[in-house]
Design brief:
It contains 10 helices and 8 strands. With about 280 residues, the chain is an alpha/beta fold. The protein has 2 domains: about 140 residues, no CATH class; about 110 residues, no CATH class. A hairpin with a 2-residue loop joins strand 5 and strand 6. Helix 1 crosses helix 3, helix 4 runs antiparallel to helix 5 and helix 4 packs parallel to helix 6. The structure holds iron/sulfur cluster (SF4). The site of iron/sulfur cluster (SF4) has 14 residues, from helix 3 and helix 9.
């Protein structure tokens, strides 16, 4: 696995910055984390393509050159049967995103900062920069008070009438953005986190809690140390699970293939295969 070897070398020389997606991946499967860390050649799946192009449409406009180029390049990676589904879904989700933006009536108190801005904060205890790239930040007035609002768009669904919050991973990502952006800006006021679910045209708002910061930082530090531990041992174990489906090295991973076989009822342990 040339990609893995190259990435392993890259990581050995540098775990100086980390993003939320990497912190998530290390818990699921260290080998997948490694594969995703610098895998430029990984083929994107349909969901990733839809998410990426929808974000680009929001940022550059549907008819922009950037979007047209991305569409051509990304869609051609997909299987023919997925291409049409992805195109339709992009159209629908992007229209929902535009409608949600048009209906936004918040009172903005300072210039809105939008787009693909990466915020970085050096976390000295872990000797590592934490990186966050939310879809947008701005300052808004809430009950007469100025509040930093951090928004992130999701192509998926959230049903506010179901009586439960959106999935934990989305909420945790919001908390991570709240931590990094407020630290990067030196903002000590309130932070409102907003998740836009373009798939269902719904949103979820919650507040970043400063009371959780030390626990949040301890968790982040523990994960960074875990990564450094794997590097020190020169071993990133494969831990299969439902996440294998979206793994860039699924096709060549023995553990992932065995997991898929077990799930599909195809797996026969070597001893029983020999006996039959
Ligand atoms: S296929 Fe599964 S077990 Fe293998 S590296 Fe990917 S996520 Fe891990």
């Amino acid at each position: 696995m040339k990609i893995i070897e190259r990435t392993r070398r890259m990581l050995q020389s540098n775990v100086s910055s980390i993003a939320f997606s990497q912190l998530c991946a290390i818990d699921l499967c260290p080998e997948k984390f490694l594969a995703e860390s610098q895998d430029d050649s990984a083929v994107a799946n349909r969901d990733e393509v839809i998410g990426q192009i929808t974000h680009a449409i929001k940022e550059h406009g549907k008819d922009s050159r950037v979007v047209k180029m991305l569409m051509t390049k990304e869609l051609e990676q997909l299987a023919p049967e997925d291409r049409q589904i992805a195109s339709q879904e992009i159209e629908r989700v992007a229209a929902n995103a535009a409608e949600m933006e048009e209906n936004d009536t918040a009172k903005v108190t300072r210039k809105t900062k939008r787009g693909e801005v990466t915020y970085r904060w050096y976390f000295a205890d872990a000797d590592c920069k934490l990186c966050a790239r939310p879809d947008g930040i701005r300052f808004v007035e809430v009950d007469g008070e100025e509040v930093l609002e951090i928004t992130d768009g999701k192509k998926g669904f959230y049903d506010p009438t179901a009586g439960r919050p959106p999935r934990k991973k989305d909420r945790d990502q919001g908390y991570f953005f709240g931590l990094v952006v407020s630290q990067a800006l030196g903002w000590t006021g309130k932070v409102r986190l907003v998740l836009h679910y373009w798939g269902s045209k719904t949103e979820y708002q919650y507040w970043f809690s400063r009371g959780r910061v030390s626990q949040q930082l301890a968790e982040v530090k523990a994960k960074i140390e875990k990564i450094r531990g794997y590097i020190a041992e020169n071993s990133f174990p494969a831990k299969p699970g439902f996440w294998c489906e979206r793994c860039p090295i699924f096709a060549e991973c023995v553990a992932g293939q065995r997991y898929a076989d077990i799930k599909a009822g195809r797996y026969q342990p070597a001893s029983s295969a020999a006996a039959s």
